[in-house]
TrEMBL record:
One of its GO terms (cellular component) is membrane. The lineage of its organism: Eukaryota, Metazoa, Echinodermata, Eleutherozoa, Echinozoa. This is Protein unc-93-like A. It comes from Holothuria leucospilota. Keywords: Membrane, Transmembrane, Transmembrane helix. The keyword Membrane applies. Pfam families: UNC-93.
Length: 463
């Protein structure tokens, strides 16, 4: 107690309390996305009839586009950060429930609900961790940026682990399905020649062989338990911040107007193809690679194991590329990722998967994770560096165009052959490389002719 008799909370206790909230929030996201990410990877296999699974994923990202620009400020203003997270996580649990009874009347509305809940969930999480980081920095007399980066590092350690756990669970549950899987080689063409609809060609195929319903229900029960546990974890153990820590926004349409206004910037237009490619390539590995290369060849039980490999390399190289950028500069890393993606696309176009070449699928998934890590780390950094005074609108554009890539990929998956989708990926990658090259060339020219004291939007990194 102080001299007035008031009980004073020790700084160490305050720091421990803040750190506990960071761990609890991170753990709740691990639970939610253990279920959601693994279930997304399986949608093209367990709900393949009439392309329902891929349609549900397209619905999620289509509604996410609208949600990102309009809904977060409204929900957070009235519910606060804690209950926004809890309510949004409950929507993810409802999506799992809808998968028990998959139909166009159940799964599509549940997918739309997830899309609407996703933006408030991630915005509330980011605001909550940032607020805790600022509080912790004041108590510890440390730099806020360093503490915030540390808290987000802890969060993404938990988040990336969810990819591994969720896929491991799916493989352990569904692996027994492979024992009764018949040889598909006489009925279906796997790999780049797999087509989701009859095209009138002799080699057109429509591969759809969902796992046993009882096994699927067991898997869904595990995922539903994770989702419910996440909701209760946030509701019971996460500290509710004071009202003045809620996200305020005087104009609901303010972010939308700022986002659309920024689209007039030439540099944003040039970086859009790279951003759309980010959504396209993530959707391809989730929906097309898992079905047309893995499930079609060796069975759905191997999907989780292959995607674990993808998740591990993605997490490891997300850290690696971030550190390497300080030494080599961003251009080298982006070009490395571009080359890896280009090689992978060529291999997938020319290689026909077989059971005795299972190791190749693991290798391709691992390399895809390496290349995707470039996009997840460097493209975000590029947006922040190009538009330092309009970061909220810039990242809103990033979410919008990446979500558009997801939506387009999942939407046309029901109508195009895999080789066509790979061709689209290659074209978008090439267009994005040209746009990025123009941006970097322009930045070099500006640095060459501007005096050192001039301010400007520069890519603050070694080139």
């Amino acid at each position: 107690m102080d001299q007035t008799g008031t009980f004073v909370v020790p700084d160490d206790w305050k720091r421990r309390r803040i750190f506990r909230n960071v761990i609890v929030v991170s753990f709740s996201f691990l639970l939610v996305f253990t279920a959601f990410q693994a279930l997304s990877n399986l949608q093209s296999s367990i709900n393949c009839d009439a392309g329902l699974g891929l349609a549900s994923l397209a619905t999620i990202y289509a509604t996410l586009i609208l949600s990102s620009m309009f809904i977060p400020s409204i929900i957070i203003r009235y519910f606060g950060l804690k209950w926004t997270m809890a309510t949004s996580m409950f929507c993810y649990a409802l999506y799992t429930v809808a998968n028990y009874f998959p139909s166009w009347g159940t799964l599509i509305p549940a997918s739309a609900l997830v899309g609407l809940a996703a933006a408030p969930l991630w915005t509330a999480k980011a605001t909550y961790l940032t607020t805790l980081g600022i509080k912790y920095a004041k108590i510890a007399d440390d730099a806020p940026e360093a503490i915030i980066n540390r808290f987000f590092g802890i969060f993404f350690l938990f988040f990336q682990t969810s990819q591994i756990i969720g896929n491991l669970v799916s493989s352990l549950v569904l692996k027994s399905e492979d024992d009764s899987t018949s040889d598909n080689s006489t009925e279906f063409t796997c790999g780049a020649q797999d087509c989701y609809t009859e095209t009138g060609e002799e080699n057109a195929t429509t591969y759809c062989d969902p796992p046993d319903k009882n096994l699927t229900n067991i898997l869904l029960s595990v995922y539903l338990a994770c989702g419910i546990a996440a909701v209760f974890t946030v509701a019971i153990f996460v500290q509710r911040l004071p009202k003045n820590d809620k996200k305020e926004d005087d104009s609901t349409c303010g972010l939308f107007l700022a986002t659309t206004k920024l689209m007039k910037e030439t540099r944003l237009v040039l970086i859009i193809p790279f951003t759309v490619f980010s959504g396209l390539e993530q959707a391809f590995i989730t929906g097309d690679f898992t079905k047309s290369f893995v499930t079609c060849t060796v069975g759905v039980g191997w999907v989780g194991f292959v995607m674990i490999c993808y998740g591990c390399t993605n997490a490891i190289f997300s850290l690696f590329w971030g550190r390497l950028a300080k030494l080599t500069g961003r251009v080298f890393i982006v070009l490395t990722g571009t080359v890896i993606f280009a090689v992978l696309i060529v291999v997938l176009l020319t290689w026909t998967p077989t059971e005795d070449k299972l190791w190749v699928m693991f290798l391709l998934a691992a390399l895809w994770g390496v290349a995707d890590a470039v996009w997840q780390t460097q493209i975000n950094a590029i947006y922040g560096a190009l538009f330092p005074s309009d970061q909220q609108a810039a990242f809103s554009n990033y979410r919008l165009w990446e979500s558009l890539g997801f939506t387009l990929s999942f939407a046309y998956s029901n109508f195009l052959c895999v080789w066509t989708k790979l061709t689209i990926l290659a074209a978008m990658l090439g267009l994005g490389t040209i746009g990025y090259g123009i941006i970097e060339t322009d930045e070099r020219r500006l640095r060459r002719y501007q005096p050192p004291s001039s301010g400007g939007n520069e890519l603050n990194t070694k080139l």
